[in-house]
Amino acid sequence: MITLEGISKQYDSVTVVDSVSMQIERNSITVIVGTSGSGKSTLLRMINRLVEPSAGRVLLEGADTRGEPAHLLRRRIGYAIQGHGLFPHRTVAENIATVPRLLGWDAERTRARVEELLTVFQLDPATYAGAFPHQLSGGQQQRVGVARALAAEPQVLLMDEPFGALDPIIRAKAQEDLLAIQERYRTTIVLVTHDMDEAFRLGDKVAVMSQGRLLQYDRPAVLLAAPADPFVARMTGLSDRALKLLSLTAAGQVALPGAVDGPTVPAGASLREVLSELLWQAAPAATVVASDGQVCGHLTVQAIFAHGHPRR
Amino acid sequence: MLQPLPLWHRVDPLGALLTAVGALALATLPFVVFKANRIVPGEAHGLLQVLPAGLALACQVALLIAATVALVRFSAPLRLAVALATIAVLALALASAADALTPPGNKVVRVAAGGAFWLLLVCSGLMATDAITRLRPGPLVRVALLAGFLLVTLLVLAHGTFDHLSVMREYAVNAGRFPRALRQHVLLALGSLAAAVVVALPLGILCHRLPRLRPGVLGTLNVIQTIPAIALFGILMAPLGALAAALPWVGDLGIRGIGAAPAAVALFLYSLLPIVANTLQGLEHVSRSAVEAARGMGMTAWQVLTGVELILALPVILTGVRVVLVQNIGMTTVAALIGGGGLGTFVFQGIGQTAIDLVLLGAIPIVVLAFSAAVLLDALIEVMQRAPS
After folding, report:
1. A86 contacts B293? CB cut-off 8 A
2. How far apart are CA B362 and CA B348, in angstroms?
3. Any idea of the CA torsion for B144, B150, B152, B155, to the nearest 10 degrees?
4. Residue B13 has what pLDDT?
5. According to the 3-state scheme, what is the secondary structure of chain B?
6. Residue-level pLDDT at B389
């Protein structure tokens, strides 16, 4: 668990982060979202002390992060940034092995970990371990960047606009991969982005920042249903908020018992996708099927409608 | 059906120019200059006048072949081979001419290379370097080519092929002093470079970290760079002389107002700007996100500097070192003026005695040294860039 206690950052007389307090739960994905200049990156960088807070403190599992030298703290926290920041003069394997080497892991353990991560990130070790970063595509470079951040099995992974440089299709794939990685390693992830859709897609909880202040920090559904501030409402988007709300719920979670005539949809699809499919097929209901082919139940247009507005 | 290419499409422009210059030189300038002794004015001889008939014919044929290959767009390896062969033919023709013109046992006559020889040598050299450039050899191949060239040259010189040539006559007279002068020259050039690296590298890093320092440091070094070498020697004479007078042990170390000390200090000062500027520029061009990631992953400031920043900046820093090394080898020549020694000794003695051969005895090794240094460092820089950025 990461606890921020009233942390602020001032440069000369300019306040970049203004007394932010929040608790980030273990094994969750927290997304900090805001416009540029909102202080979101500075907030993230105060967690691993790349920026030292002017006031307040950061607790990692209850311990003040200032209790050890900053570089030792950072070796325990994964860090991935926009544009990947890979070392151009080192191979992919050497890049990934950066933190294990700093920590003095033995060669065999490092090699095994590099191989495991390359495989998890769908990069064949035989092909890519010895390649240099400039030989990879943008998406591959980004994956190596995340693999490098995870190399020393950190409990916490900080990501600063990690997908900012990717085109939309590769970006969607990278987001999917990140969710799978989080499922696998149960890492606590704090991710900064300016893209609200990305925040809703990835975040268990989303923190909205503006002008250095934390405006609201809650589950995506609450942000949509009960924005604490007109700025949060603008950020979440008013015109399609019902559809956004639908996109937060998976069909399998709310299916009604029994199968029906009509199209079938996967249990993992969001209600938004199911609704779109029903509109396309001009059907009133669809059967929800799990990935193993078993019927989970069905969904009707009426049932979906019930999820498309805030329940009071 | 392919149309045969018109003739002018098969003509190599550079080759045409080189052939024209070579032919003009051969027609109008002397190939060798003969002097009855070191002081009297020389008499010019053409290539065909001095060589035995058979050799002259062979030489002509060789030059004609060279001109043909230079003119037409043949493949680069063939052009290189022919250019190198032409250089060898020219050198052998010169040696034979010197042998033919020198009466047996006579050590007074001087036979020197004339304008035609030098221009033909330059033309063949340009043809060779042009071919090498087109072949794009790897750095190791280039170093091997240089080593081969130097080895062959040394072997031929040791064999005595050119002993009747005036430059070698001057060498024979100065053989006792030559190794010492060469050593002094290399030591002065390399020593001042090493000292400059030790000072300039940290200074460049400091300028990178503290932008406020940049205008002052770079401005000062720029001003030093504009002071002519002779003037800088003069400026240094007084303080170094005073230092030696005040502290006798400093004088015992060889640090005096004249001699190697002011020369070394001057070369050191001239070396600072290129290395500081290139260190700064190299560090500025290191990917910011790589540095940010390095810090974020827990590298210490020293690890970021040595493991990421300096390594990525190294090719640019080495480019500065290359500039300084070549510049130093050339400028060390002037050190002879204030008793600093080095190959410049021969150059200035030769100028004083109007003995152009003595000047060449100093100048040719300086050119070879500078050229070799450039080839070596270029190769090193390219090897460094193999880990691309």
Report:
1. yes
2. 9
3. -140
4. 86
5. CCCCCCHHHCECHHHHHHHHHHHHHHHHCCCEEEECCCCCCCEEECHHHHCCHHHHHHHHHHHHHHHHHHHECCCHHHHHHHHHHHHHHHHHHHHHHHHHHCCCCCCCCEEEECHHHHHHHHHHHHHHHHHHHHHCCCHHHHHHHHHHHHHHHHHHHHHCCCCCEHHHHHHHHHCCCHHHHHHHHHHHHHHHHHHHHHHHHHHHHHHHHCHHHHHHHHHHHHHHHHCCHHHHHHHHHHHHHHHHHHCHHHHHCCCCCCCHHHHHHHHHHHHHHHHHHHHHHHHHCCCHHHHHHHHHCCCCHHHHHHHHHHHHHHHHHHHHHHHHHHHHHHHHHHHHHHCCCCCHHHHHHHHHCCCHHHHHHHHHHHHHHHHHHHHHHHHHHHHHHCCCC
6. 43
The answer to whether domain A2-238 has CATH 3.40.50.300 is yes
d(CA B200, CA B321) in angstroms, rounded, equals 10
Q: Are strands A2-11 and A55-60 parallel, antiparallel or unpaired?
A: antiparallel
Q: Which domain holds residue B106?
A: 7-136
Tens of pLDDT along A248-261?
Answer: 888 888 889 988 88
What CATH class does A244-305 carry? alpha beta
Cα separation, B69 vs B132, whole angstroms: 15
Enter the pTM of the model.
0.82
- Quote the Cα angle for B361-B367-B371, to 5°: 150
Q: Which residue in this structure is represented by tokens 């190599």?
A: B12
Q: What percent of chain A has pLDDT over 90?
A: 65
ipTM of the complex: 0.84
> Can you give the CATH number for the domain in which B270 is found?
1.10.3720.10
Our CA-based measurement puts residue A268 at a distance from the nearest CA of chain B, in whole angstroms, of 35
**Inter-chain CB proximity A79 and B293 less than 8 Å:** yes
pLDDT of residue B143: 93
- Tens digit of each residue's pLDDT (9 = 90 or more) over A21-73: 999 999 999 999 998 889 999 999 999 999 999 999 999 999 999 999 999 99
Residue B23 belongs to some domain of the structure: yes
Q: Is the pLDDT of residue A76 over 90?
A: yes
Provide the domain count of chain B.
2
pLDDT over 90, % of chain B? 49
Beta strands in chain A (DSSP E): 2-11, 14-24, 29-34, 55-60, 63-64, 77-81, 156-160, 188-193, 205-210, 213-218, 264-266, 285-289, 295-300
Residue type, B223: V
Residues B204 and B68 both lie in one domain: no
Inter-chain contact B297–A102, Cβ cutoff 8 Å?
A: yes
Phi and psi dihedrals of B161, rounded to 5?
Answer: -55, -35
A contacts of B286 (beta carbons < 8 Å): none
Average pLDDT over residues A11-29: 93
Mean pLDDT, chain B, as a whole number? 88
Nearest to A88 among B290, B296, B303 (CB): B290
> Which residues 57-76 in chain A show a CB within 8 A of chain B?
71-76
What per-residue confidence (pLDDT) applies to B251? 73
Closest chain B CA to residue A78: B297
Q: Please name the residues in contact with B351: beta carbons below 8 A apart, sequence gap of 6 or more.
A: B359
